[in-house]
Known about the structure:
This protein has five helices and two strands, in the order H-H-H-E-E-H-H. By secondary structure, it is mainly α. Strand 1 and strand 2 (76-78) form a beta hairpin.
Amino acid sequence: MPLTLTIDPDSQDAPYEQVRAQIAEQARDGRLPTGYRLPTVRGLAEELGLAANTVAKAYRALESDGVVETRGRHGTFVAAAADAASRAAAEAARTYAREARRLGLDRAAARAAVEDALRAVYE
Length: 123
C-alpha cells in the first residue's frame, strides 16, 4: 500500500508536523508495515509541493521517535513503530509520575491532571 499524505495549508500545524504525524499514524495502524521504504526526501518534497528541508525535518523527527530508521544510501524505512510509541509513552509516563511525586501530588491529583490534559488534547 503506498504512502498517502495530504498537506492542509490552512492547518494550524506546520507542514513538517503534518508529514510527521501522518507517517507515524500510518506506521502505527499498519497501513505502512515495518520495513516499508519511504520515498526519498526530495521525491516526497516534490510530490507534496514542499521544500526538501521540510520533509527532512519530518524524517529526522520520525527517526528520533523511533518510527523510521535511515539506512544510509539504502533509504529510510518504517521501524517497529508501535513498539517505539509504547516505549516513548511509558518513559513519558514515568517522567510525569516522578515529577508529580516531587511536586507532592497524591495519586488522585496526578491522575486528575493527566485526565485534564488528555481531555484538552483529544477533544
